[in-house]
Amino acid sequence: QVQLVESGGGLVKPGGSLRLSCAASGFTFSDYYMSWIRQAPGKGLEWVSYISSYSGGTTYYADSVKGRFTISRDNAKNSLYLQMNSLTAEDTAVYYCARDSAFLYDYWGQGTLVTVSS
Amino acid sequence: NFMLTQPHSVSESPGKTVTISCTRSSGSIASNYVQWYQQRPGSAPSAVIYEDNQRPSGVPDRFSGSIDSSSNSASLTISGLKTEDEADYYCQSYDSNNQGVFGGGTKLTVL
Prior knowledge:
heterodimer; A: mainly beta; seven-stranded mixed β-sheet; four-stranded antiparallel β-sheet; B: six-stranded mixed β-sheet; 0% helix
């Protein structure tokens, strides 16, 4: 069965960096676009970034993270990543990785919590 | 870019029918498919409707979706409400760059 497992979240100081990982299994990872979606505490869902299938040559970012976050993938390791730099309190959220199936996020991980605080 | 606006909350009694709206701020609602997600407390979201009106496998037919070009909105209708339907519901579409756009979410209370 399809599984997505995020890791790498934690407490980081403002201005710091963090790298999130998402381990995928149960499907041909390279065939799918993948996305990161976040949810601030008590708030709604916010799309963060996506990466195209196969070589991952196409990436897009929400304006709120552009220039600070970088999405990447390693198909050999069935893994998705999100490098987050220059973090601020507004980046505090649960970060979900999701399989992007023709604009439907059909499978989600359980999420990993990122807390930015001094 | 456009926004998707949902009511903050709705409530209805068990066995009744409820409809949650999702209004697109600019551009046609019919331009891009709309999806709906259910999120129970402490859990990740899961899709209940995709491509405007399609149900993923395992989603009961009490859930249905539609779009209305005259009001430029999408709707999620849940009939025969059960207490287990109490959750947050989010509509989602995407823009011309295939970037996801989520509505603000609607808290459904079944009382």
